[in-house]
Amino acid sequence: MIFLTNYKDDGSRCFTKNFSQNRCKNFKNIKNILGSNFSKEERKDLKTDKISNLKNKIQNFKWDDSIDWIIMEHINQNLTKPIVLDSSKTCSKENPLYKHKIWLERIYYDENLDLSIDELMEICGLKSTSALYYWIDKLNISRKRRNRITSGERTNQKGYIIVTMPEYYRHPQFQNDSEFRKVERFKHHIIMEEYLRNINNSECKRKFGYSIEELYRKYMIMGDDGNFYLKNECIVHHINIMNTDNRNENLYPLENEIDHSKLRGNLNKCFEILIKLGQIKFTEGKYYLSKCNTINSLSDYEINKLLRPISIENCYGDIDHVKEAIIKKDIIDWGKVSKDWTAEYRLGAEPVRRISLNPYSYCSELNRLYTHKDWVETLFNDERFNMTDERLSKICGIKQSKARWWRRKHNIKGVEEGYGVDRIIVNGYVWLKNPKDYFNPYAQYRENRIQEHRYIMEKFLVENSHLKIAKECLIDGKYLNPKCIVHHINFDTLDNRLDNLWLCKNKSEHHKYHLSLYSLVKDLLESGLLYFKQGKYYITNLERFFS
User: Fold this and answer.
1) Which of 246, 116, 225, 233 is nearest to 176 (CA)?
2) Contact 479, 458 (CB under 8 A)
3) Cβ distance 246 to 187 under 8 Å?
4) What is the pLDDT of residue 414?
5) Is the pLDDT of residue 181 over 60?
6) How far is CA 322 from each of CA 396, 401, 431, 434, rounded to the nearest angstrom?
7) Which residues on adjacent β-strands are paired with residue 82?
């Protein structure tokens, strides 16, 4: 379907399927203009030619001889001077015809010209539409009313089809009560909305795993007209990642963006397994599917060996993980650490009193575990937790200065005395303790740590500074540019081997690598290696890795 870009009265862009015949006359070859055959300079030249043709038409207009072409222009607050306008010449700064009501009103409303507000702005020689609207309002010329919106379709930059809804579409989360406002929805949302309205109970159980009542409660909302509509916050996912494939069997609704990101994470896990097993290859910045089925040729032992998780010295990078871990008996047996779980504590001017503590409960105002020396010492001595004053303060819900005071009171060494493990995991990435005599002013630091994969890539580029990529991505020949992204080829962010890292110059380039991988989803589904069931992707015969 072909659409022509026009402009609304407020100057914003819109797309119309049916354009007037008057506009078609201005173009000799409308098909080439609608296509992308012209460069920016050629389009600019076409626009300039069109404006000059319109100016010539306006100059040839016949005006009534009785019209007074003299206007009074304000020089300052008290002085005015007369200006004689010439209707046979073009509008300019010396000949401001747009200040004359009769001239502007005729040009503005002329059906043969059919000018958009931007075209009229160019003809008048003004720099903005707001300046043009100022003179339209000042001369008491009523603004043109926009045409009533009719239903139509257009495609956005991401390839999604957008539908302009008719007036009878009454979604309660959208306003469609005005002839000047249009409601636009994605076509796949409308198709899913209609599908959910007509779904039966057995199909609902098979595809979604729950009843129609639960389905409507999650995804639908009732309108004033009694119809059910798909909630605005819902996301409709394309199973084969083809944005234009809007078949019912290729669409699946999700409650919100959070669920959609989880589904993307599930798909990335499938990619990770398929890449590690050699089913998907990566060569020269592009993913491609192996012609033979390598999974069937591998034994269970070989599969388990290839998919064995990478061990890191510390698996408790996040504070929430530490909080959960220290109250579990299988992580730390506090009964063996100490038999006496009481401690002396004084609040303000009150006398010292002995308080009872529970190490298997969270540290709080009622359970001040930081007052117990053995509890604090155990946390600081256990390398898995990478304990610091800041982390202790977050675990106990106290100020960092207070956490430092209690640590020193217990005579326990802290970070400033040289304590700390080398590697921790935070948000799925390995963070490395900052090496001595190293500082990158452009790097992102976290508690005196840097991301290991960026450090490894930077070190490699510095050692191989003769490479073209090193010259492009290093600052001063030794610092990795913060705009560069280090991509994990097998999607395992803990696998920081140099063979598994690929340097992207920017986010756009990194996105292209992901797109080359997502383009394989359709082939994987058709080959039967991958399948989708009740909101999750699975690899055939490897379902045990998705439990």
Assistant:
1) 225
2) yes
3) yes
4) 64
5) no
6) 11, 20, 16, 22
7) 72
